[in-house]
Amino acid sequence: MAPYESDESTTAEEADDLRAGRRKAARYVVPVAVVGVAAATIGLVPALADSGDPNLPKISAQQLIDKIAKSDVQQMSGTVKISTDLGLPNLGGLENSLASGAAGSGDGSSADPSSKLTELATGTHTLRVASDGPDRQKVSLLEKAAEYSLIHNGKDVWGYDSRSNEVYHATAADNAEAQKKQDVPATPKDLTDEALKSVDATTSVRVQGTAQVAGRDAYRLVVKPKQSGSTVGQITVAVDAKTGMPLKFTLTPSSGGAAVIDAGFTQVSFARPSSSTFDFTPPKGAKVTEGGRAGHGLKGTDRAPMPGGALAEGAGGMKVLGKGWNSIATFDTGGKGVPSGSRAGGQFGGFLDSLGDKVSGKFGSGTVFKTRLVNALITDDGKVYVGAVNKAALVKAADAGK
After folding, report:
1. How far is the C-alpha of 134 from the C-alpha of 140, rounded, in Å?
2. What is the fold, at CATH topology level, of the domain defined by 12-290?
3. Helix pair angle (94-104, 346-355), 10° resolution
4. Mean pLDDT per segment of 10 residues, for the chain of length 402 residues?
5. Cβ-Cβ contacts under 8 Å for 131 (sequence gap 6 or more)
6. Strand ranges for 333-374 from DSSP E
7. What's this model's pTM, rounded to 2 decimal places?
8. Where are the domains of the chain?
């Protein structure tokens, strides 16, 4: 079979097994904009692992994906380094002021995951993670002089920001809000599960050599779009040869340069963490915020591969155009396009101008807001087209909608 032909041998039963295996994964946190593209669909290519260091038995792409899906690591702990480079311009402090405003408004809290962990959308961060079955997980975001921790222990979900000494608390019964807080990916396993959610012929997948990650022997699974127009170059996953758990996830853009997402373990252990790891009592004097408002979850990827999932959730009649990596989500805001320059005013207006390119076509005119991964066209009459595609693909989609 040619290297880029899809494997027709996958049965419906096998596909169900893959999906069932993926549902076993523990969830943590990652920004919406990057998760959406990681969820692009893939096809299967039977290919054997190249010789390399370490020297591992040969395995096909189908067999390796089966291994990932059946991986059922219940106990583990480790350190994850995650770097995100969407190519956003320097916000000059705007991002901090917006985050502070969100945390300080209403019943908001700086310890609420939906406001705190969006920091992962840019820069390099270190996370400490631990898991002991489906009811106990912990992830800590390590900062220069502070630490933010998100702990799930039984029915309780705690968020703690040591910088502000604020605590967020929810339970599994809080209108499913607690589940939302823990159901957003951040580890290589979570990102890989998103990438393997569905299987079709829009992508080639092959095993390409071996590697060592955090002292563990691993196979390298390489995922590439077959379609032109995608901003995704390829996804590379280092899969632990023994357990099948992904140890490293790297997404590089079609434009070249540094990875957009690079998340990998620098240290990992599959021993059961100490039970005290998941214990939490609010420190003396800490401000505790109970529960949370619906819609604060960060995931948003069940709807479409796009940033700003809350905007799409609030907009009726959203459609998805195209297939696979070239999927474009479109919806009508019911109003005017996003203002820029003097109409937006101040620092925010300058930020929009720095991101946007004015475009025109049969649809009329609008602005394309761009990152290295996810791009969005907002027309002057308020229609939105967004996906992991280039500017030309967005304009083409808008023209076709007229």
Report:
1. 18
2. outer membrane lipoprotein receptor (LolB), chain A (2.50.20)
3. 120
4. 33 43 32 35 38 80 92 94 82 44 54 78 91 93 90 93 93 51 61 69 89 96 89 94 96 93 96 96 94 38 32 58 88 70 48 75 93 92 93 94 74
5. 26, 73, 74, 75, 76, 77, 137, 138, 273
6. 356-361, 364-369
7. 0.74
8. 12-290, 309-400
